[in-house]
Amino acid sequence: MNISSLSGGVLSRFVTNIAPSQQQSVVETQKEVIATCNKLIQEKPSRNFAIIHLLGKQWRVTDGDLLVVEGYWPPNIGDKIKLDKVLLAATKDFSLIGRPLVQPGLVTVTATVISKGLSHTRTHFKKKRRKQFMRINFQRAQQTMLRINSVEIANKINEDLRNVF
C-alpha cells in the first residue's frame, strides 16, 4: 500500500474533524499551554520533583530526599550546593522536559552534604578448583550523603532569564 494512495493522512483527518471555529494554530496552542503552566506555578504550589544528572547517574529527587553518591566528590560536610544539571522537572499537573537539560535557571535544586565516609566492605573471592588457587580481596568505596533541601520551579516559562549563574 502506498502512502500517497491513502486519503488524507493522520494529521489531515484530525484537522478535518475539528469544527472550523475550534481550529487554532500551533503557536496559539503553545502560548495557551505555557500560560496555563505559568498560572499553575504561581497559584498552586505542589510537591515538585526533578530528575537530575549527578556523577554519571540520573536521580529522581524531591524535597527531603537522601542520596548516597559513590565515588570521590570534593564538597565537604555542611556545604550547601546547587545541582544544575536538571533533565526533567514536574509537578502533578505538568512536566518540563529538557533537551537534554531544562533551561538554566528555570529549576533550582539545592542540597546539603550530610556525611562523607566509606561504603560497606565488598568481598571479591576468586577460586580455581583443583589448582590450589584462592584470592580474597576487600573493597570499600568513598560515599557522600546528600539531603535535597528544595526543588523549585523558580521563574516563569519562556521568560528572559537574568543572572542565571
Word description of this protein:
The protein is an alpha+beta fold and 165 residues long. A hairpin with a 2-residue loop joins strand 1 and strand 2. This is Large ribosomal subunit protein bL21m. It holds the Pfam family Ribosomal_L21p. It comes from Parnassius mnemosyne (clouded apollo). InterPro entries: bL21-like (IPR028909), bL21-like_sf (IPR036164), Ribosomal_bL21 (IPR001787).
In brief:
This protein has helices spanning 10-17, 26-43; strands at 49-54, 57-62, 66-70, 80-83, 86-90, 95-97, 107-118, 122-128, 133-139, 142-153. It is α+β, with helices and mostly antiparallel strands and 165 residues long.
Give, in spatial order, the strands making up the sheet with the most strands. Answer: 2-1-5-6
Percent in strands: 35-45%
Shape: elongated
Largest sheet: 4 strands, antiparallel
Mean pLDDT: 80
* Helix-strand string: HHEEEEEEEEEE
Question: In terms of structural class, how would the helical and strand content be classed?
Answer: alpha+beta
The helix tally amounts to 2
Low-confidence stretches: 1-16
Tell me the number of strands. Answer: 10
Helix content: 10-25%
Radius of gyration: 25 Å
**N-to-C CA distance:** 55 Å
